[in-house]
Amino acid sequence: MIARTQRTKRVPARLNDCEVTQDNAVNDEGDLIHFALLADSEPLNYRDALKSNVWKRAMEEELKSIEKNQTWKLVDLPDKKKKIDVKWVFKVKLNPDGTISKHKARLVARGFLQKHGIDYNEVFAPVARIETVRLVVALACKNKWSLYHLDVKSAFLNGPLDEEVYVSQPPGFEIKGKESMVYKLYKALYGLKQAPRAWNKMIDDFLIQIGFKKCAAEFGVYVHCPKDEDIVIICLYVDDLLITGSRIAEIAKVKDKLKSEFEMSDLGELSFFLGMEFMRRGDGIVMHQQKYIGELLDKFEMESCNPLSNPSETNTKIDECSDEEKVDPTVFRQIVGSLRYVCNSRPDICYAVSVISRFMHDPRKSHMIAAKRIFRYLKGTLELGLLFPIGTNSAGSTLIGYSDSDWCGDITDRRSTSGYVFKFNNAAISWCTKKQAVTALSSCEAEYIAGTFAACQAIWLNSVMIEIKCEPVKPLILRIDNKSAISLAKNPISHGRSKHIATRFHFIREQVTNGMIEMQYCPTEVQLADGFTKAVKLDRFEFLRRSLGLVVCNSSMN
Asked: pLDDT for 232-252, tens place per residue?
């Protein structure tokens, strides 16, 4: 007889508030309780998937796509070659309203087994920046263009491989009598390290072949001008394409060419792109992330929290809090990473997220409380979104930037915080909050460094706008609320107080001298970048939020 252990089993502290049941527990009807938790969820392995007709059809559809693209060929494994294992990954895809869209099965190669120089070389593949997507949406709204969304089915299966790669047969679909044979890949599989680059190279070559030109300042954007006054713009993000242009007929031609080359899903007018939702109203398009924020509140158990009206405490600044209780760093980093993605449509939380991001290396209780405060604010402002107005006016058609700094705002190392926001057609298209890399000796120096930081972004935005045939009025306007910083940029005055400033921060002086940028003074009351550098009082915060174009999604007529 094997003696059973006498050790006392204790329930983990994290499960004290949970109802715990055994894996083999059954209900009154004799069914396993845990099976109820697996309803409409992904299978844990391919054996479970094969027992379900829905998932089995999804796996067969994936293999048909691979065969249709002539991705591989069954061969014997050559000597001195190693095969790469593959596995099935399952995902239930949902619509924005939470209903099931489709059951997706993906055959994925275990790319971590690849060796550099043998199985792959270069892996980088460019994608469009989110701020470029906002710029293109603002441009489309300004000119009253239509916006369309296309998705490439099994995109990575289209990219040809330069390396010799062998993979095992798909689990559950091995060919009888040929179990020892492997597949030689002619095109990429998901999971291979070079798969994104191979796909990007293929679609890049095709777009250039049909007349598009890749932007030199933004490699994820392609422009086609079939006639002098016509233009078609494509924003490429892996396998998602955002298409807009001056004429619907020209857009339709491009879509037909893409569909003839790749198997694509035409998702119609833009409504959901990269986790961001787009809602059309009478006065423009609102970009929001209600679904994503709702998922975060549920994931981090904040769906029942009490809402707040401000994401940051006004009179409190967070330091390292080294004497406080530590919190789970993995959960804290997940929270910060998730909130950073929310910042793509919610500039009002940009500063608050920037502050908690500084403590990811050693998060403490106060840092977690500050992070949860942001969730409480999002819970109360779930319906807010960023408005891109339709049409144009004389004040809003130019590119206008606002730059500000909070001198010695960080109480740990006394460094300042830079912040900027750029508006085009009265819509915020680019914003940032960042702690400065050096310690400023005066508010003038801090504002000067922040202005240089904003000037670099202004030059890049100008380059992108020129390439998409939307050249802004020169000079570019940068508004700062510090007259000394403006004077320092225009003239090398007060040399004794500025001679220590690093040379790279004098970039803004060069741009002002050659007429590219014009620095204008604006009172602090109308400085829109003020909320990107410090926590402000509620009335001030709400004014800045409105000025940035954040509105309630359903507050206007559709």
From this structure: 999 999 999 999 999 999 999
